[in-house]
């Protein structure tokens, strides 16, 4: 008799627990099916293609150099003009001051005769646009 009542309580308690569990189950809508391709075509936006031309300039030298002119957009062989700089004048004065005691101050004119001691100014031969300087010292 006692054993039957225990079995009855156990059966009813498990039924009550099952009842509670069934009440807490929350039904949700299933997620939409996965698709590799998007459904709507409005999400595809065509990007404008941008074409950029990158021009690599060769560095200027103390002689005529192939260079891309910004003004006439041509690749030209530059026209070079040699110009005396402040360093050229200072070197000439230094040599003149150093050699004037022995009457050789005419050696002071030597820096003006050496092209490597001058600044090279590059110009475009087509449009005469200034392209840049090159200074060795
Ligand atoms: Zn030019």
From TrEMBL:
* Highest taxon of source: Eukaryota
Q: To which protein family does this belong?
A: Belongs to the CDIP1/LITAF family.
One CC-aspect GO term: late endosome membrane
Please state the protein's primary subcellular location. membrane
Q: Could you list this entry's UniProt keywords, alphabetically sorted.
A: Membrane, Metal-binding, Transmembrane, Transmembrane helix, Zinc
Mention any Pfam family matching this sequence: zf-LITAF-like
Stated name of the protein = LITAF domain-containing protein
Say which species the protein is native to: Diatraea saccharalis (sugarcane borer)
Among the GO molecular function terms of this UniProt record, one is: zinc ion binding
For this protein, the parts annotated as crossing the membrane are 91-114
Q: Where in the cell is it found?
A: Endosome membrane; Late endosome membrane; Lysosome membrane
Q: Where is the signal peptide?
A: none
